[in-house]
Amino acid sequence: MYSIQERQVKFKEKLNQNPEMIPIILEKHPRSKIQGLKNQLYIYLYNLIQFRDTLKCTLQISPKQSLYFHIGNQLLPEGLADIYQKKKDPDDGFLYITYSDLEVFGFISK
Questions:
Q1: 35: containing domain
Q2: Domain membership flag for residue 108
Q3: Phi, psi dihedral angles at 34 (to 5 degrees)
Q4: Lower CB count within 10 Å: N or C terminus of the chain?
Q5: Domain count within the chain
Q6: Is residue 37 part of a domain?
Q7: Inside any domain, residue 20
Q8: Which PANTHER family did the record assign (predicted)?
Q9: Degrees (nearest 5) of the Cα angle 57, 8, 27?
Q10: Position 109 in a domain
Q11: What CATH number is associated with residue 31?
């Protein structure tokens, strides 16, 4: 995982290249049975469905298997722009998202 200073530098570099980007840190839910990611830092440009499909390919998940995204203890809706403004980390500017192969309602996230 990157330090907060490294994340801030990466975020500023990417944002200078494209101000429409949303920086995301993806973390595997501890109860999820799917594999973890080697790189947890992502820059989001496309819609969430494309992002999910790309991530499923990276994780080698079957197209029939579900992949869920959570922020805190809520399932993530499809639009990220509004959520990013409300839920981004005030220190590094990243949106922290947990992913899982389960809906996992009621879990406690960082």
A1: 4-100
A2: no
A3: -80, 160
A4: C
A5: 1
A6: yes
A7: yes
A8: MICROTUBULE-ASSOCIATED PROTEINS 1A/1B LIGHT CHAIN 3-RELATED (PTHR10969)
A9: 35
A10: no
A11: 3.10.20.90
Cβ neighbours, 10 Å, residue 52? 19
**97, burial (CB in 10 Å: exposed 0-12, middle 13-18, buried 19+):** buried
Residues 6+ apart with CB under 8 A from 64: none
Q: In whole angstroms, what is the distance from residue 109 CA to residue 97 CA?
A: 9
Q: What residues contact 36, with CB distance under 8 A and at least 6 apart? A: 28
Position of tokens 């500023």? 12
pLDDT in tens, the chain (110 residues): 567 788 778 778 877 887 777 878 888 888 888 888 877 766 666 567 777 888 888 888 887 888 888 887 777 765 677 788 888 888 888 888 888 886 544 444 44
